[in-house]
Amino acid sequence: MIGQRALLALALAAGALAGVLYYVSAQRTTVVVAARDLDALHALADEDLTMVSLPPDALPAGALPNLAAAIGRIPRAPLTKGQFVLAGGIADEPAAFRTGLALPSGMRAIALPVGAAQAVGGALIPGARVDVLAVPVGGRAPAGRTVEILAQSVLVLDIRSESGIALGAAGHSGVPVVNDRIGSVVVAIDRADEIRFADRIATSTFVLALAGPR
């Protein structure tokens, strides 16, 4: 009799555990995703977004639980259809660049005219850190000026093409300019360095050296 009671208790416990596991696995959390491909230039509207229901353990940190948390705000970077809209990925103001990178407070953005050969062979990407070297141009720079390091470990905010748009972005026709080349690299510099950089742009060429983690 004791054995039967023990087996019955074990069966009931197993059934309860199975019920709990099923309940947990059946739980769903509703979150916001992009309803279509979106740029980072316009505020999100109702038709830009949709809701999906997923298990809690399948959701990334910062996933938004309702449309109201996203509508009227602007993505920091382009979103693809079905991509989660995250709290840290939207802002009240548009990002300064298509990359979604924002200019750090107190800094200034400046475009340095360089080609691929002076920009780590074209391997640079926004978000990288670089040292900026200025090479004086004969006849334009003061006599006696030598190669100098203008700044170290500065943030690359964007890479622009020779046509003036973000490298790899669509041109005025809406078609990506696949054969465009690097024309300039936009970096964040200290406000106190503005005049010095402006002078070197007029009198020097630049080489950007990729910097490792700080």
Question: What do these coordinates show?
Answer:
By secondary structure, the protein is α+β, with helices and mostly antiparallel strands. The chain has two domains: 24-91, Antifreeze-like/N-acetylneuraminic acid synthase C-terminal domain (Type Iii Antifreeze Protein Isoform Hplc 12); 107-210, no CATH class. It is 16% helix and 29% strand. It has helices at residues 2-26, 194-203, and strands spanning 29-34, 49-54, 74-75, 90-91, 107-113, 129-136, 148-161, 182-190, 204-210. The strands form three sheets. It has a five-stranded antiparallel beta sheet, with helices on one face. The protein has a two-stranded antiparallel ribbon with strand order 1-2. The chain is elongated. 19% of the residues are buried.
Sum up the structure in keywords:
214 residues; alpha+beta; Type Iii Antifreeze Protein Isoform Hplc 12; 5-stranded antiparallel β-sheet; 2 helices; 16% helix; 29% strand; elongated
Flag low-confidence runs: 170-176
Tell me the radius of gyration.
27 Å
* Helix/strand/pairing category: alpha+beta
The gross shape turns out to be elongated
Largest sheet: 5 strands, antiparallel
Please give the number of β-strands.
9
- Which series of helices and strands comes N to C? HEEEEEEEEHE
The residue-averaged pLDDT reads 83
Instruction: Name the strands of the widest sheet in spatial order.
Output: 5-8-7-6-9
State which percent range the strand residues make up: 25-35%
What is the helix content?
A: 10-25%
